[in-house]
Amino acid sequence: MLVAAFAAAGEEVEGNPTYPILPHLGELIVGIIFAIIIYAVIAKKVVPRLEAMYEERRAAIEGNVEKAEKAQAEAQVALEQYKAQLADARGEANRIREEARQQGAQILAEMREQAQAESERITTAARATIEAERVQATAQLRAEVGRLATDLAGRIVGESLQDSARQSGVVDRFLADLERSESGASSR
User: Are the C-beta atoms of 22 and 30 separated by less than 8 Å?
Assistant: First the structure.
């Protein structure tokens, strides 16, 4: 139906019907030539630029992907190094802690030894001082008892015991008798 409408609208030129939407042969040839020229210009100028832009974009995307993969690999290596360093640091901290604990125990043991030695030294010195004071007190007591005994014995006996040898013999005999009487009284 459409063809019939075109045929009715067209005029007949030299026995051929003309169609209004069909171009003339000259126009058709000029159109084909311009189409070929436009195609050639596009193929020579535009397409290479588009291809270059496409290639640049593809290379940039691939480069970015490679960079991202490389960065991820580096991050993984850094993470492994960090974990290794962290493990080393923990091991070092444990070693230092254990070393400090051992040093503390050693210092404590040394301090105990020093305190024990000081205690023994003080105890020994105190015992020596006490013994020296006891010996001195005993000597003073013997001398005092001897002097008193000599005075009393001299009064009782009526003779003078001023001679030191005699005095010493009397004192020793008196103390021996006194010790015997005390030991006899304590055994009862």
Answer: no
